[in-house]
Automatic annotation (TrEMBL), chain B:
SUPFAM superfamilies: P-loop containing nucleoside triphosphate hydrolases. Residues 5-239 form the ABC transporter domain. Belongs to the ABC transporter superfamily. NCBIfam families: ntrCD (TIGR01184). This is Nitrate ABC transporter ATP-binding protein. GO terms for cellular component: plasma membrane. It comes from the Bacteria. It holds the Pfam family ABC_tran.
Length: 310, 263
């Protein structure tokens, strides 16, 4: 989850933002064109042309992803139309409509709507991730500020970081004696490394200029923290948070399959036992959409605090 | 004349892997109140090292440095620094960048209204009242450097230290900022030490040009007194024989004495 992982993430996302920008650029060009008539007549040919151009720009932005999705659904249909264990898109759609018409029903602890399951998973991720942030970000600041600490902790972190968080699940079960906190515990373990490492890296990469400013102005430690350290490290911290959330959302599904209870991971396993494969496919989409939303929300926050053009 | 900064027998050396590296030796210099001094020399001669010593960002290996008769033990607001790359904090507006300095220096003695007034005044001094709410990435390089100067001046320092402040700017912007700086210095009577590698800038702005020999173990080679009338006008000076002579003297030092010495 260090630089390599960050690079993978950003390259993975680059095409998406690239197309968005191209779309905007196309839209911009489309608006520039009809300036030629000096007076803009609302219902003249200029207006029609402009509306046409805008539509074309919209189509250029939306069409490729729609075609991609259609291809996926088409292939899925072709592969499943002749029977077999996997349901067709149409059947899955019907099941999804039925499922989402009542996402928040409750009939006993093991039979709840998909909405409750997703919320339960999000809650576990939120708690585990929140505690990891409370521990990991201050720890990252300490490691970045004091080289001795960093040298002390680095071998331990390097050793533990590659371990699948699920390997920690039995330890959680042993310590907490209950399934639910054990699942939260695995989330904590998998979330904490990216936050420690990225925060620490941010602290060590603060430009010397800013620290010189602090020294020349003779700022108090509190001012140095609030006005220089924290804002300078914030983008790195947000990268850590984004990586953590991504991993946490990956891990929670597996953890819940093992621990049971309420949650989207458990739900997938339960539907497998009921042999409702269309529900599993729906769950895959739901997990994907929630993960995407989490990632995009954090990207938005990160963009807000990006001071690239220094 | 009152001595603002005194540098006595100052030397600076660093411990490197290859052993001891002597950057500066035997520096003797008194900087008088209200005086403008240019430090000039080839790159790597230690002129920035000398400025950092005055700023207190580094401490000398040998010798004594005094500011107003007191030893320079570390950085302080009475020796404000304008950095080469402006070093504004990108997450603060121009106003907040200056306010940070004002608050630090005057926050204990003065009320909020007075601090705000000082910040507004400092930005007005460099002609940036209209850009107070802008962030550093929204303004040009010349404007950023002016905010840096405003931040330094807002602290009402005893001496203004500038490390190649206009080095990264284009020639036209540089000329305009030099003129503005001259006006500000004459209005405020501030003492200034400027590191530069621009011969014209050195002659135009300073009362004395301190020329450093080539490193390692650089020291002061010559000191040239620039006795041009103030206020100075760059257009008039372009044809001034004295200006040309001062210029020639520095060029001679840099490109004859020092290059031979280096080779």
């Amino acid at each position: 989850m260090t630089v390599v992982a960050m690079a993978e993430r950003s390259t993975g996302l680059a095409p998406a933002s690239g197309t968005a920008r191209e779309g905007e650029a196309a839209g911009g060009r489309a608006e520039v064109k009809p300036i030629t008539p000096a007076v803009v007549v609302p219902s003249g040919p200029g207006f029609a042309e402009r509306a046409g151009d805008a539509l074309r720009a919209l189509a250029a932005a939306l069409l490729p992803p729609i075609i991609g999705l259609a291809l996926l659904v088409g292939l899925w249909h072709l592969g499943t139309a002749n029977g077999g264990g996997i349901p067709t898109p149409a059947k899955t759609w019907e099941a999804a409509v039925a499922l989402f018409s009542d996402p928040f029903y409750r009939e006993g602890p093991n039979d709840q709507g998909i909405g409750w399951n997703v919320l339960a998973s999000l809650e576990r991720v939120g708690i585990g991730f929140g505690i990891a942030a409370l521990v990991g970000i201050p720890a990252g600041f300490m490691l970045g500020r004091f080289a001795v600490l960093s040298k002390m902790m680095n071998p331990i972190i390097s050793l533990l970081r590659p371990v699948s968080p699920l390997a920690w699940l039995p330890i959680g079960l042993l310590v907490f004696q209950r399934a639910d906190p054990a699942a939260t515990w695995t989330i904590f373990i998998c979330s904490i490394w990216p936050m420690i490492l990225n925060t620490a890296q941010g602290v060590t990469r603060i430009p010397q200029d800013y620290l010189n400013v602090a020294r020349v102005l003779n700022l108090s430690e509190w001012k140095i923290f609030t006005k220089i350290l924290f804002p300078a490290v914030l983008p790195y911290m947000l990268t850590g948070i984004r990586l953590s959330i991504g991993t946490a959302w990956l891990v929670i599904v597996a953890a819940e399959m093992l621990t049971g209870g309420v949650g989207i991971g458990f739900w997938v396993w339960d539907e497998w036992n009921n042999l409702k494969v269309e529900h599993i496919i729906i769950a895959i989409f739901v997990i994907g959409v929630v993960g995407l939303l989490l990632e995009q929300a954090l990207m938005l926050v990160a963009r807000r605090f990006n001071y690239e053009s220094r | 004349m009152k001595k603002t900064v005194q540098i006595q027998d100052v030397g600076q050396s660093f411990d490197t892997k290859k052993g001891r590296f002597v950057a500066l030796r035997d520096i003797q210099l008194d900087i008088h109140e209200g005086e403008s001094i240019a430090l000039i020399g080839h790159s790597g001669c230690g002129k920035s090292t000398l400025l950092n010593l005055i700023a207190g960002l580094t401490t000398p290996s040998t010798g004594v440095m005094l500011c107003d008769g007191r030893e320079i033990a570390g950085p302080g607001p009475e020796r404000a620094v304008v950095f080469q790359n402006h070093s504004l904090l990108p997450w603060l507006t121009c106003y907040d960048n200056v306010y940070l300095a004002v608050e630090r220096v005057f926050g204990r003695k003065e009320g909020r209204a007075s601090l705000k007034q000082r910040t507004h005044d400092a930005l007005a001094l460099v002609g940036l009242s209209h850009a107070e709410t802008k962030f550093p990435h929204e303004i040009s390089g010349g404007m950023k450097q002016r905010v840096g100067i405003a931040r330094a001046l807002s602290m009402q320092p005893r001496v203004l230290l500038m490390d190649e402040p206009f080095g990264a700017l284009d020639a036209l912007t540089r000329a305009r900022l030099q003129d503005e700086l001259m006006k500000i210095l004459s209005d405020t009577g501030a003492t200034m030490v400027m590191v530069t590698h621009d011969v014209d800038e050195a002659v135009l702005l300073s009362d004395r040009v301190v020329m450093l020999t080539n490193g390692p173990a650089a020291t002061i080679g010559e000191i040239l007194e620039v006795k041009l009338e103030r206020p100075r006008d760059r257009l008039a000076l372009a044809h001034d024989p004295d200006f040309a002579e001062y210029r020639a003297a520095i060029m001679e030092f840099l490109y004859q004495k020092q290059l031979k010495h280096a080779a």
